[in-house]
Automatic annotation (TrEMBL):
CDD domains: TM_PBP2 (cd06261). The chain crosses the membrane at residues 12-33, 69-96, 108-128, 140-160, 181-206, 255-274. GO terms for biological process: transmembrane transport. It is a multi-pass membrane protein. This is ABC transporter permease. Keywords: Cell membrane, Membrane, Transmembrane, Transmembrane helix, Transport. InterPro entries: MetI-like, MetI-like_sf.
Length: 289
């Protein structure tokens, strides 16, 4: 098919505009990465570093020698692993129950879930609930308020609805109850959906900031995002607490950039392994054949 002159001009213009947008989007990431590996003395001598003459791990060594930073990484790791597991367990089991037509009260429960999507209780009721449960200043308070999502339950229910009910009936004939059928038959078939929603939950827990700031008063329980925010505000670096005195502190800007890189790397490493399940897990069950 012959491409007209107008189409060629449009394609060139489109590529040019998209290239500019991509460059504007990627440049801050590139700059953060470059500054974090820049030799401290070189960074102090230059106002803008686009490609350092000397690469250095000084900022990373200083951060990883700080007890507060290591502790915050451990807190974020705990929230991500335990929170994602609990969220997937609650969301998938609730969605499976709602997909079973013999489940009594499923329509009423489904309406309540839809109501939570349309109307949120707000910050104060959530805070009062956490306070009455005695979970203030506990990591479980952050997990509790993010345990599930009504929209994710609806999407996962649609996935379970697409699985033939004959599989569960065959398992029942073989002596399986509903829980056994769910664990041994439904969950193995749900791996694309589990991987997709697991990634959603993992990213949300790793990036926990507001809920942690609201419910955690003890600085030793702060996740990496809260500590990073304090580092960005505090130029002195006192939020890192005790650091090895033998390590010379690098400029605060390189420390901040290194902390940002460490905060985003785990998600970037996990995403490629789940990418093949991502689109399939989100879309499956959303349309009917």
């Amino acid at each position: 098919m012959k491409i007209s002159f107008g189409d060629r001009v449009f394609n060139i213009f489109n590529i040019f505009i998209l290239g500019i947008i991509a460059a504007v989007t990627l440049f801050p990431i590139y700059y953060v990465f470059v500054v974090s590996f820049t030799e401290p003395t070189e960074y102090l001598q230059k106002n803008l570093v686009l490609f350092p003459e000397k690469w250095s791990l000084a900022s990373y060594k200083y951060l990883l020698s700080a007890d507060a930073f290591i502790r915050s990484l451990g807190v974020s790791t705990f929230l991500t692993i335990v929170g994602t597991f609990c969220s997937l367990l609650i969301t998938s089991s609730l969605a499976y129950a709602l997909s079973r037509k013999k489940f009594k009260g499923r329509k009423a429960l489904l309406l309540l879930i839809l109501f939570t999507i349309l109307f949120s209780p707000g910050i104060i009721p959530n805070y009062l609930l956490v306070k009455e449960l005695g979970l203030l200043n506990s990591l479980w308070s952050v997990i509790l308020v993010s345990l599930s999502n009504g929209w994710f339950v609806i999407l996962m229910k649609g996935f379970y609805d697409s699985i033939p009910n004959s599989l569960v009936e065959a398992a029942t004939i073989d002596g399986c109850n509903d829980i056994t059928a769910w664990v041994k038959i439904i969950l193995p078939l749900s791996l694309p959906s589990i991987a997709a929603f697991g990634l959603f939950f993992a990213v949300a827990y790793w990036n926990q900031y507001f809920n942690a700031l609201l419910y955690l008063n003890d600085a030793s329980k702060w996740p990496i995002q809260v500590l990073l925010q304090n580092m960005l505000i505090d130029a002195s670096g006192s939020s890192l607490g005790d650091v090895d005195p033998l390590i010379k502190p690098p400029p605060s800007e390189t420390l901040k950039m290194a902390a940002v890189v460490i905060a985003i790397v785990p998600i970037l490493l996990v995403y490629p392994f789940l990418q093949k399940h991502f689109a399939k897990g989100v879309m499956i069950g959303s349309i009917k054949e």
